[in-house]
Each structure stands twice: as C-alpha cells, then as structure tokens.
Amino acid sequence: MKILLTTSFYPPHHIGGDAMHVKYLAEALAEKGHAVHVLYSLDAYNFKKKEKKVLKKSKVTVHALKSPLGTLEPILNYCFGTQRYTMNYFKKLVKKENFDVVHHHNISLLGYSILKKIGHYINLYTAHDYWLICHKHNMLKYNNLCKEKKCFSCCLKDKKIYQFFRNFQKFKECIRDIDTIIAPSKFMERVLKRRFNNVEVIYNFAPELAHKNTKIKDYFVYAGVLEELKGVINLVRVFSQIDKKLLLIGNGSLENKIRKLKTKNIRLLGWKEHKELFSLISSAQAVIVPSTWPENNPLIALESLLLGTPVIGSDSGGIPEIVKKVDNKLIFKKNNLNQLKNIITNFDRSKYPSEKMRNIYKKYFSQEVFFKKYIELAK
Predict the structure, then answer these.
(1) In the beta sheet, which residues pair with residue 289?
(2) From the CB of residue 113, how many other CB atoms can be counted at a distance below 10 Å?
(3) Could you point out which of 71, 156, 178, 181 has its C-alpha 20 to 30 Å from the C-alpha of 102?
(4) Sequence-ordered alpha helix ranges (H) in 98-183
C-alpha cells in the first residue's frame, strides 16, 4: 500500500513520545514493503525548540513543511484550525501520490482541515491525546478530570487559547470524515466513545530494541519532559525522604525548581540519546511513570518492558492498563505520596525477572500484535 502519516512533529524534530510512535510506525510499515510518506511541520519544531538537527536517510519519504510565514503558520493552525499553505501542500501531495491510506496523528499544529478526505483513501486518526474533544488536549479542568464542559472558562483560567473553530460546522464535518479513530488505551476509548462510534483500541508498540542481560543496579528512573502534569515534582519529594536513588532523564520548565528541591540521592541527567537512555533503563530497578494527568499510553513504559524493566505508575488515564500486567501492587493513586513512597521503599526487583517483563511486552504491546489489528483497519 501507499501510506501517508501526518504529524506536527517528527524525529529528530520532535518533543515527545507521540512523534516517536509515528517514526516507529513509518519505519515498520516501510520494512514490510509499503511505500510510506510522512508530512510534518518543521516550523512547529522551530517554534518550540529552534535546535538544528538533520534527518537521517531511511526508506520513508519525509515532507518537512516550511511555510513562508515561518513559525507563524503552526500558531495560526492551532488558533484557527487551518491555514492555506499547510492545506494546499497536503492537497497537492495527496493528489500527486494517490495514497491508499492517510493516517493522522498529533495534527494540532497542522490544522483540522487535513482530516477532510481528498479522494477515496482510508482515513485514520490516532488519538495520542484529547485534541478531538478538548481545547487544552489534556481533559483536565481545574486539575481534575473534566466531567462537565465549560471550555471557555476553563481555557481562561489556565490562560489557554479558546479555539472558536470547534463550534463551527466545518470542523465537525472534517471529523466525520475519519473512518476509524484509533485509541491507544481502553481509557481513551471510553472517553471518546461518549462522542464517537468509530473508535478501536490498538495499543502502541516500540520496535525491537537491542538488549542484553545487564546487571541490575540500585537506582530508579524517570524519563520524560520535566513538566507539572508529569508528576515529576511528586517523585522528587518522595525520593527526598528516602535513601533510594533516582535518575531524572529529560528537560523542561521545572528543571530549576527540581534543582532546588532535590537531594544527593537524586541525579538530574538532562536529555539522553536513545542508546544511552535504553542502557540506563535496562539496568534500573524500575521505571516510574507518575503522571497526574490522564496520560494515554506512555511509550517509555512500553520501551521499559521491552528492555526487561518493570514499570511503576499512577492510576491516571491508560497508565494502569500497562502496569497491572506487571503487578497491580505497583499502581498508586496520583498525588498520593505515601502510597508511592511505600511502593518504592518495599520494591523487590527479584519478583520481576527481565524475561518475564519482555514476555509481557510481546504478548500485549509488540509490533506483531499492533499490526494484526492495524492492517485490518487499513484495508
């Protein structure tokens, strides 16, 4: 098949796990013999990061959008839902290549208009977050799970942009053109099925990672952005009270605050390239996912299991769906620092052999399990 994947970000021009999933998916599809194209916004990355990085050659054909408006293009896409340059580029590409499948991912900075079909392809959308139904993408209202829609006041309070286009018929028509919405967790499926009938659960996957039986060391790992909703401050406060070691891998707006709070047993390592990151994870006691927002299907948890490392996680969103396959006792209530402290203090790595963790990955989150469902939807 000829397949187009659309995404706001694409490695190395990316800032999160959703873009890594697109890369993993694109390369896996190409390896299976499909002709794969990726459309993403270089302007969006330049707005966020402005770091010079070079795309590596692969079997995937990559289209990096660079508008005459520069970084203003993704901002306008975000605020108003569509811009002429992005939409025209998408139209020309689709008409030229005659794709069998167009699969959208995080398109918040590309605009909703590309959801409208231009031809007779299968139109898929993966809900990596809550963009389809939430202005802020996180389904939180006043730091709690949103149960009553008061979007304008919610955006106002959190100083977020209220996207008026969500009230327009054109936006709703574009969403109706999606053939299948892929939910990477059962939690996401339950949320989306309140509004949509065409939702299917397919857990994300990570590619086979080079791993070996390494010596397990005496530290725990958090890997991800250092932001409030990730629960990383809770983690720092817990480890500041105990004598266990914590490695914090990543960067973000909380870095200075963490430096002030952390104690000698907490190391702030900054961001690491995948080879070094995976080496640190494979030797860890466990990877901790302490998110306080309803996170969907964190890729770092899947990569950890593939590397043979157990996962400790909060009860937010789809995180428990991963952790319970290891052990229900490793799930803690978000913001319950005492419960998290007890889990870490009493953690016994010998109960979670690396081979058992890899088998859990293979059974539920492997590439084979993913494609068994995915190819059916793409036909």
Answers:
(1) 313
(2) 20
(3) 71
(4) 151-157, 169-176
Model confidence band, residue 211 (pLDDT cutoffs 50, 70, 90): low
Q: Which residues pair with 201 in a beta bridge?
A: 183
CA-CA distance, 51 to 352, in Å (whole number)? Answer: 39
CA dist 319 and 321 (Å) reads 5
pTM of the model: 0.91
Q: What is the pLDDT of residues 229-287, one digit of tens each?
A: 999 999 999 999 999 999 999 988 999 999 999 889 999 999 888 888 999 999 999 99
The token pair at 227 is 């932001």
C-alpha–C-alpha distance, residues 202 and 205, integer Å: 9
Between helices 299-306 and 17-31, what is the axis angle to 10°?
A: 60
* 3 state DSSP class of 335: coil
Q: What is the DSSP string of 159-195?
A: T----GGGGSHHHHHHHHT-SEEEESSHHHHHHHTTT
Residue with tokens 């996207």: 163
Q: Which residue has the tokens 């299976």?
A: 32
Residue 296 contacts residue 185 (beta carbons within 8 Å): yes
For CA atoms 274, 276, 280, 283, the dihedral sign is positive
- Closest by CA to 326, choosing from 296, 286, 291, is 286
**Helix, strand, or coil (residue 353):** coil
List the domains of the chain with CATH numbers. 2-201 (3.40.50), 219-364 (3.40.50.2000)
